[in-house]
Design brief:
Layout: E1 3-7, E2 13-17, H1 22-31, E3 38-42, H2 48-59, E4 63-67, E5 70-74, H3 85-88, H4 98-105, E6 107-111, H5 124-132, E7 136-140, E8 143-147, E9 155-157, H6 163-173, E10 179-183, H7 189-200, E11 204-206, E12 212-216, E13 225-227, H8 232-244, E14 248-252, H9 260-268, E15 272-276, E16 279-283, E17 294-295, H10 307-315, E18 320-324, H11 334-340, E19 344-348, E20 351-355, E21 364-366, H12 370-382, E22 386-390, H13 393-396, H14 402-407, E23 412-416, H15 421-424
Parallel strand pairs: 2-14, 3-13, 9-10, 17-18, 21-22
Antiparallel strand pairs: 1-22, 1-23, 3-5, 4-5, 6-8, 7-8, 10-12, 11-12, 14-16, 15-16, 18-20, 19-20
Helix pairs in contact: 1-2, 1-7, 4-6, 5-6, 6-7, 8-10, 8-12, 10-12
Length: 426
């Protein structure tokens, strides 16, 4: 398996452009199924998860190609609504195809999705939403078959503002007869991006970004050209990396409005942040300050996807900080790895108590999931000595060659591929 080798202790400096949002691109790629024809998507990141979604679309009969950050998808050749079990097991976001396939073909067969092991993530809200629209659902071991002669509008109240469930219901409802209203809907920027894409195809949706979304069903959707929003989690990761290394960087092609809660937390930690249009300047020349309490919650509150990265910064801060995780119960797996680097962190149930230390030290650590991997990279950048991050395929799911991006900011980091067995034996 490949590794990242990091020589720490160098402040990040310079400017970098932030690539498109994985969590916006994946449901939009799935939504292309809804309109027969050729779609062109720009600002699509080159990631393992994107590659998996394109492979699934090809398995369904679509033609899909990516060149640079542009993806072309021809859906008129789609001839199957059965998602291969092997591909579903590689990525949780494959579940986004349920709504579009059900709306187009009247049936869809899926399996329990895979992805990061960060805690239990049931799909019951997805299934309940589709049932409310008229789908019949049968479960066989780990296989789920959804069928519907027709879909009809409905009022749906989500028990929790699930991003995936909100998006799946939106995509299923766009061609349903009548009006669908989703209450307690997720409010993330990626929801708004999906609404804008669907409306560009001819859908009639309002309310994304609020807790109530209204979808008026239409008979026909047409393919379109669309540009994906920038990735707020990647932007937040680099903001934290700059602060942790006492650096000064400029992020380009970002949307500061998507990062309000993150900017607020970082400013409380003493990080200097200036926003100017689609540019954010970040600097932290001195040791960061402890933040008394941070709680992860659905948007617009502090995102769980940046919890582990900010924990690295707090592990270097002056004083005691508390991080409470309310979304995923398995999202503190990075704590043991950070402790091996000298961090002083104690976990009690859903809270982590972080006592800042003057410095971290290089070590060999393992990325247990996507965001934990990003956190360990930040720790390695800030640490004294050499850090080796293993299992970096997790990181490649959400960051487009993170070592290249960091190298442009002056970091000493490179990817180390395994030595072939015949060479190792010589």
């Amino acid at each position: 398996m490949e590794k990242l080798v990091i020589e720490g202790g160098k402040p990040l400096t310079g400017a970098i452009q932030i690539h498109g949002a994985k969590n916006a691109a994946l449901p939009i790629l799935a939504a292309c199924i809804l309109a027969s024809g050729t779609h062109t998507l720009h600002n699509v990141p080159n990631l393992l998860d994107i590659d998996t979604m394109l492979r699934i679309l090809r398995a369904l009969g679509c033609r899909a190609e990516q060149q640079g950050d542009t993806v072309s998808i021809t859906t008129s050749t789609a001839n199957s609504s059965h998602i291969p079990e092997e591909l579903m097991g590689q990525m949780r976001s494959s579940i986004f195809l349920m709504g579009p396939l059900l709306a187009r073909f009247g049936s869809v067969t899926v399996y329990q999705p895979g992805g990061c092991a960060i805690g239990e993530r049931k799909i019951d809200l997805h299934l309940k939403g589709l049932q409310a629209l008229g789908a019949n659902i049968e479960e066989f071991a780990n296989k789920i078959v959804c069928t519907a002669e027709s879909l009809h509008g409905s009022e749906i109240v989500l028990d929790f503002p699930s991003v995936g469930a909100t998006e799946n219901i939106m995509m299923a409802a766009v061609k349903a007869e009548g009006i669908t209203t989703i209450y307690n809907a997720a409010r993330e920027p990626e929801i708004q991006d999906l609404q804008n894409f669907l409306n560009a195809m001819g859908a009639d949706i309002i309310g994304a970004g609020t807790d109530t979304i209204t979808i008026r069903g239409v008979e026909t959707l047409l393919p379109c050209t669309y540009r994906i929003i920038p990735d707020r989690i990647v932007a937040g990761t680099f903001m934290v990396a700059a602060a942790a290394t006492k650096g000064s960087i400029t992020l380009e092609k970002v949307n500061p409005a998507h990062l309000t809660s993150v900017i607020h937390v970082l400013k409380r930690a003493g990080v200097q942040i200036i926003s100017d249009g689609d540019i954010i300047h970040v600097s932290c020349p001195t040791r960061p300050k402890a933040v008394e309490r941070i709680v992860t919650s659905p948007h617009p509150s502090f995102p769980t996807d940046l919890q582990s990265q900010v924990m690295v910064l707090l592990s270097l801060a002056d004083g005691m900080s508390v991080m409470k995780e309310t979304i995923f119960e398995g999202r503190f797996k990075h704590v043991d790895e950070l402790s091996r680097m000298g961090a002083d962190i104690r976990v009690d149930m859903s809270s982590a108590f972080i006592r800042g230390v003057p410095r971290l030290y290089g070590a060999t650590v393992e990325a247990t999931d996507l965001r934990a991997g990003a956190a360990l990279v930040i720790a390695g950048l800030a640490a004294h000595g050499t850090t080796i991050v293993e299992q970096i395929h997790h990181i490649d799911r959400g960051y487009d060659r993170i070592e290249h991006m960091l190298s442009r900011l002056g970091a000493s980091v490179h990817r180390q591929s395994p030595v072939p067995s015949e060479q190792a034996n010589n």
